[in-house]
Amino acid sequence: MKTLYDAGKSDGKNLLLLHGTGGDETSLVDIARFMDGSCRILSFRGEIQEDGMNRFFKRNGLNQFDFESLEEESDKLLAAIEKESQDKGVAMEDWVLVGYSNGANIAAHLLLERETPLRQGVFFHPMSLEVHTQKFDLSDKRIWLSYGGDRDPIVSQESFDELVTAFQKRNADVTVEETSAGHQINMEELQSARNWLENL
Ligand code: MLT
Known about the structure:
two-stranded antiparallel sheet; Alpha/beta hydrolase; hydrolase activity; PLipase/COase/thioEstase; hydrolase
């Protein structure tokens, strides 16, 4: 997979970036540096093409997810994270997954559906993909999630709540930030994510 890497400074957090639909490995870099100016960055480009836009798994229209592709791409992404972690000498459990929209959705799916040492996440505007095949305990996971309110044309309150509940039911430590700014990331939530990260 195509990646961008910056080792950052020795006291920085390890941020693993997953962009939204139409983004690429550079899309969340400024956001990562805003959250932690010293951070190490490992950022992936989604390999699925949809009308020239990069994504992390296929869909057949807005919110019509291709579940076969979701599972296949989740396995590929996890393998790529394992490989990059080894190459860069970073333990899997030391990454903080930082995803936006489609990238947040696959990141949350990895934590819910794969038994992996990955355990921390900042998820901007994710939604439930409605896949709940696993029951293993998530009490080692700490996640922060934001919701854009009823002006978000993509993520419904119901879908966001379903995702939050899926994590809470399995004992993850969950922090929710609700805004009213729609699907775009805004300053208020960035500040909240930054505070959460500082205290991690
Ligand atoms: C997006 O456009 O990124 C979606 O709303 C979320 C997804 O497709 O996973």
